[in-house]
Design brief:
Elements: H1 2-10, H2 22-27, H3 50-63, E1 75-79, E2 85-94, E3 98-103, E4 106-111, E5 115-117, H4 122-133, H5 174-177, H6 186-190
Antiparallel strand pairs: 1-2, 1-5, 2-3, 3-4
Region (Disordered): 159-179
Length: 200
């Protein structure tokens, strides 16, 4: 029954003006039917109208929106998935808005909205060619020796003693701090009354 009513409502009627279907008269627009699958539909026009282009220009001017353009080999800052921004180098561009970027952790793919131009210092420009040829290897560095003050030749007055090394006091546990103290009898202090016995 539902299928019959559905078909009846989108079928054009000769009694209506312009031979429109009951659904079209009720809603004021054409109803989508199973037959629409076989007919070609017009693609929406991507060209902006004059009014739309004016609105876009006004928005871009007010918010400072600018199209981002990058080229392979350009030094950039990219945002990682944890929110940090790290420096990297664009390897190649995919389409109009996505780029492969080489960073310390490897090769990642980022949208232009997560990519920013990075100014390169002169020292990085000279070292850039060597960095591209050599693999990234982190050299382990030994821990520097601890810094010590020497008191040799220091002129101390007679009433000033040289600084002595601070001795750490042993940490006393809470249970051992109260071990020697006698605990108060809380029943005597509070006027102990056994459960169930009430004074009348």
């Amino acid at each position: 029954m539902n299928q019959f009513l559905y078909t009846y409502n989108y079928t054009p009627c000769e009694a209506t003006p312009d031979h429109r279907s009951p659904t079209e008269i009720f809603f004021g627009r054409k109803f989508r039917t199973p037959l629409d699958i076989f007919t070609l539909t017009e693609k929406p026009k991507s060209i902006l109208s004059h009014q739309q282009s004016k609105m876009k220009k006004q928005f871009d001017t007010h918010h400072g929106a600018r199209a981002r353009r990058f080229v392979p080999g350009q030094q950039v800052l990219v945002q990682l998935s944890d929110g940090r921004r790290v420096s990297g180098k664009i390897v190649n561009i995919i389409g109009f808005t996505i780029a492969h970027v080489r960073v310390d952790i490897g090769l990642i793919k980022r949208h232009f909205n997560q990519t920013w131009n990075r100014t390169v210092s002169p020292s990085e420009r000279t070292d850039g060619s060597a960095e591209d040829l050599l693999p990234m290897v982190r050299n382990p560095t030994a821990d520097p020796p601890p810094f010590q003050l020497s008191f040799e030749g220091a002129n101390f007055s007679s009433n000033v003693d040289p600084p002595a090394q601070a001795q750490e006091e042993p940490v006393v546990r809470r249970s051992s701090r109260f071990a020697g103290h006698a605990r108060p009898d809380y029943r005597k202090l509070a006027g102990f009354r056994p459960y169930g016995k009430h004074s009348v």
